[in-house]
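Field reference: sequence -> structure
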Amino acid sequence: MKEQTCSSCGSGNLLESGKAELFCRDCGIVEEDQIVAVGIEGTDFREGGSFLSGTMPMDGKVVKASWLASYRERSNLQAKRAISFVTDKLSLPQYVEQQAYWLFKTASFKGMARGRSIERIALACLYAVCARNELPVSPQELVQYSTFEKKELMRSLKLVKRELNLKMVIQNPMDFLPKYISRLGLRAECYTLASLILEKAQSSTEFVGKSPRCLLGASLYLAAKQCGERITQRDIALRLGISDVAIRRRTKDMRKIL
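Structure field:
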């Protein structure tokens, strides 16, 4: 018997579904000339069919278009739920949720969600929107309400940026300062001092290209110590979603310019 191959990509990786259809695992097309029509007695009508038995061959292009439309609808619904859940948890503005969902639909239309985690692509779109609107939201804050890790989010973000040609705004660590002063339970004096330390570090050429989050962590730690607060580098690192080793290195460098 002649081996069946996909008419679109030539692959022999065909699978018979539970709906008596042959489809290509590689490109997803349903073979219009290879529909497996099963009659009352289980007869295989690959070459023809009967209206009486309801086994006439189907148009594979129509089936594929219908399947893609259905898949996009399910993907969009899943993405909308993921985006809505995280924006609600982080108390983000409604316009952020709307922009993130629109960005995901654009990505989905370009086929970026097919074969990938819907949740990852959706939250990558949400992070991109937050960054473009200069909202102080960190990757760590997003992934704490997801089923994956920060590195997977950043990998998806890189894909979204490249495929959609997004220009990301470099976030200013000064925008995050009030939020983390509050979350760490530090006094108002720490905010004033940390602002001065961070401003001095940003104006120094020594810290050009350095991680904004590490600069923020080191500034918080130095300010807290000078204000007599009992807090460790690890406490700050856990809040910022970075390593305490990174804060230690940046603190050592920043002490030289103070």
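Note: Residues 32-58 have pLDDT under 50 and may be disordered.
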